[in-house]
Each structure stands twice: as C-alpha cells, then as structure tokens.
C-alpha cells in the first residue's frame, strides 16, 4: 500500500521551524506570550495544537531562561489553559530537534 502524506500539512510546520534559532537574547515574558499568540492564531484551525508544540520546541530555552511557567505563558497569550500540557510536550521534544 502506497501511503502519501498531504503536502498541505507541512508548509506551516516548515515555515515555523525555518526561523528556529538557538536562543533569542533579551526575550521577555510578554515577547514569548506574543509569539505564542502569533503561532496559535496565524495558522489554520486544524493545525493549532501542532503550532503550540512547535512553539514549545522553538522557544524551550527561552521559556526556561525567562523563568515563566506554561500557565503564566498561556495567560499572557490569552490562550486556553489546557494548552499548558501542549507547550510542555513541545519543550520536552526540543532536546531532539537540532537548531540549524
């Protein structure tokens, strides 16, 4: 059986990871909240949870560096508190993603 993936699923994911950097110097809690908000609201509905995972991957170091809890981050970003777990999942995955 030849299974193919839908190509429309990947462009937002690739776009989000293309700007992955090792660390953003001087980032604030508010900056992180804004970035989470942008990643959440700028992608199609069916990909929002994936984008929250990618946010956790992309900004894991900054979240730890700033010392913000995932709960506080979702509050600043005005997202659902249930996404605390999704951010945490992304942060755990970050150690398996190599920055380019």
TrEMBL record:
Q: Which InterPro entries match?
A: HTH_73
Q: Check the record and name the Pfam families matching this protein.
A: HTH_73 (PF24718)
Q: Which residues form the HTH-like domain?
A: 28-99
What name appears for this protein in its UniProt entry? HTH-like domain-containing protein
Organism of origin:
Endozoicomonas gorgoniicola
Q: What is the lineage of its organism?
A: Bacteria, Pseudomonadati, Pseudomonadota, Gammaproteobacteria, Oceanospirillales
